[in-house]
TrEMBL record:
This is GNAT family N-acetyltransferase. CDD domains: NAT_SF (cd04301). Gene3D superfamilies: 3.40.630.30. Residues 3-148 form the N-acetyltransferase domain. It comes from Sphingobacterium anhuiense.
Length: 148
């Protein structure tokens, strides 16, 4: 199997939105392709995130979405690896690792100090994948959310 990773643009909105909708369903959200497409379109138009798509046989089968943050102790830009998804039919073939590796390269290309991410404790696959890819578990911090 040969795969290729390309940075997504507004021209890739439809294929990105399909994968994004599947990703949201994976996290127990109701499918809403149109609302997801509008959300992604806004990210593209306002240059608010960077998305890489992974293709197999010229078909987009996965993506990673990164958001720019700034790290207070490193005094540098860093990237939040917000979303990572590979279609179930293509899992177990190293595509997630390839997307993470591309994200690490993006850090080098953009002079960022690194990547951070969070995932649910119940994400068994992700919690095995991330340490395998060089991420260190941060047991010192608690992450809190405030939702309006």
């Amino acid at each position: 199997m040969k795969s290729e990773i390309r940075q997504a643009t507004l021209a890739n909105l439809d294929e990105t939105a399909v994968l994004f909708d599947l990703y949201r369903v994976f996290y127990r959200q109701q499918p809403d392709l149109e609302k997801g497409k509008a959300f992604l379109k806004e990210r593209f138009v306002n240059s608010e995130s960077t998305i890489f798509l992974i293709y197999v046989d010229n078909q987009a089968v996965g993506f990673v979405q990164l958001y720019k943050l700034f790290h207070y102790t490193k005094l540098a830009k860093q990237w939040l690896l917000s979303d990572l998804y590979v279609h179930p039919d293509y899992r177990g073939q190293g595509l997630s690792i390839a997307l993470i590796d591309r994200s690490k390269l993006w850090c080098e290309e953009t002079n960022a100090c690194g990547l951070m991410l969070e995932t649910e404790k119940t994400n068994i696959v992700g919690n095995k994948l991330y340490p395998k890819c060089g991420f260190e578990y941060d047991g010192l911090h608690n992450y809190y959310h405030w939702w309006k």
